[in-house]
Design a protein that fits this description.
Helices cover about 65% and strands about 15% of the residues. It has three helices and seven strands, in the order αβββββββαα. The relative contact order is 0.06. The termini are far apart. It is an alpha+beta fold and about 230 residues long.
């Protein structure tokens, strides 16, 4: 029973191989999923075998097709030319080749993903560092702003104090001038008052002298009591 099932499966496999479309000249085909395929010098099984077994998945270039004989002339990647049974040719790489290519592609994609992941991690680290630097700079800016405000306040107070000092100095100068002027007037008034007193004293002395002179120049008069005695 198992042998019968195997024969049926084999017949279906051969049918599927023989019903594939024939390859065109110039196309690239591959050895189908069989172990090895002989490469012959001509389009029949009687021709000399050039290569006893091309492994499945071998890449071949189509040179010519003999539909009646069911053979296809091919060239290998290393330049060997010969004929191979057409039923063993497929238009796509076999699953093993596809799997290898897929695995290679997956490895490449994984490497790219890892690279992108590393780049993203680096960018995130740089972003964190930039944020930390920004916070530090903002803190420094705020501190400097406070210091600048305090300096402006102190400078404004100093400027106001300086202006006040200048104003007080000017007022002091004016007051000193006024005091000097008043002192000069007071001295002048005092001198005038002393002069007046001197004049008054001299006048009184002169008047006294005049009175004395007048009194002395008048003749003396005797009283009646004297004359009668």
């Amino acid at each position: 029973m198992k042998y019968l099932i195997y024969l049926v499966f084999l017949s279906f496999s051969c049918f599927g191989l023989t019903t594939q479309p024939l390859a065109a000249v110039g196309e690239v085909n591959y050895i189908s999923d069989v172990v090895t395929v002989p490469l012959r010098s001509g389009p029949t099984t009687a021709h000399r075998i050039l290569h006893r077994g091309l492994p499945s998945g071998t890449q071949l270039t189509i040179l010519a097709v003999d539909e009646e004989a069911g053979f296809t002339q091919v060239r290998t990647t290393d330049g060997m030319e010969g004929w191979i049974t057409s039923q063993y040719l497929v238009g796509e790489p076999i699953a093993r080749v596809k799997l290898a290519a897929t695995e290679k592609r997956l490895q490449s994609l994984k490497a790219e993903i890892d690279k992108e992941r590393e780049a993203r991690a680096s960018i995130q680290a740089e972003h964190k560092e930039t944020d930390a630097n920004n916070r530090t700079l903002n803190s420094q800016v705020q501190s400097l702003s406070k210091e600048l405000t305090e300096l402006k306040r102190i400078s404004a107070d100093s400027i106001n104090e300086h202006a006040r000092n200048i104003e007080l100095t000017q007022q002091n100068t004016r007051l000193a001038g006024q005091v000097e002027e008043l002192s000069s007037k007071a001295r002048q008034l005092e001198e005038n008052l002393q002069l007046k007193w001197l004049l008054y004293g001299g006048g009184l002395v002169l008047i006294g002298l005049l009175i004395g002179v007048i009194l002395k120049s008048r003749p003396r008069q005797t009283t009646s009591y004297t004359r009668y005695t």
